[in-house]
């Protein structure tokens, strides 16, 4: 069976104020063309279809168009909700849409109920594990501690239990939206840390032929059977070096996996430039970036006059301007932002406690801070779902 694995469409999202709806529509066209031209048997979409719980109307219309075009091809599509989606909104009408071959899996309780598709070699069971917010699903899965690993492990226990009841030789595919250990993150994914931990080990998914992951925006291989497709479009300058693509997966009669990357159309390349303004404007090596979306970091010791206007004369698609004057590490003017770079909320809070009272928090206090941050993140998720 030939599968096309994609995820993280983020319909409705912009890129530094640039409306990406046209680029997203071009991607949908490319997806449909790939399905038709490469003889794809099933499409899997591993979450974050939309960028937010209540997407703009234009994004909903584009999603509707995508579903109609896939249904017209007669190629089954299985998709799950991600942490940016409203699972209940995305899942509205799922029972009716099933009849058109579009299978929306957004309910945690249905993790162990597969979509069964067949080829010449027998059945393939597709299990959809939507994004599982630990605090919201712990009761459903009966876990004592609300953590990503515990709820995903419980969901996978249901998958393996159902798979054990299937005919011998039934192959299996799991769609999941999670941060798996070994994956490389970018700046454009929403933080899903709970209890100080965001990642889960790949071993959680043992016993399945192919795991189609979503959430991380870089296409990457955790193992031959565990892969991220990444987002089809860039959503931050941290993705400058990404090659945007989908996985075309050939699932053999014995469950063996062969995978090929299918490149996605990107509307404009990204470039991160760094240096003094006059150097950036004069360097002939930068000619190749003149039509790119540009993030420029200026290192001038004194902020130059009209930097954006001057930059856009050469690089008309400059979207982000950062000032980072080069100074000695012990210079008292080194910015607060630079001191915080690469540190998470927990570390910043602990450093603040140490600064105020001269000693960092003990283990009990660290736990209090961690619980507070988890509560804030969970409350944000609940508000998104409720909207």
UniProtKB/TrEMBL annotation:
GO biological process: DNA recombination; DNA replication
Keywords: DNA recombination, DNA replication, Endonuclease, Exonuclease, Hydrolase, Nuclease
Gene Ontology MF term list: 3'-5' exonuclease activity; endonuclease activity
Signal sequence coordinates: none
SUPFAM superfamilies referenced in this protein's UniProt entry, alphabetically: Metallo-dependent phosphatases
Domain Calcineurin-like phosphoesterase: 1-218
Domain Nuclease SbcCD subunit D C-terminal residue range list: 267-355
Superkingdom of origin organism: Bacteria
Gene3D superfamilies: 3.60.21.10
The keyword Membrane appears for this protein: no
Chain's role: SbcCD cleaves DNA hairpin structures. These structures can inhibit DNA replication and are intermediates in certain DNA recombination reactions. The complex acts as a 3'->5' double strand exonuclease that can open hairpins. It also has a 5' single-strand endonuclease activity.
Similarity field: Belongs to the SbcD family.
Subunit organization: Heterodimer of SbcC and SbcD.
Protein name per its UniProtKB record: Nuclease SbcCD subunit D
Organism: Streptomyces apricus
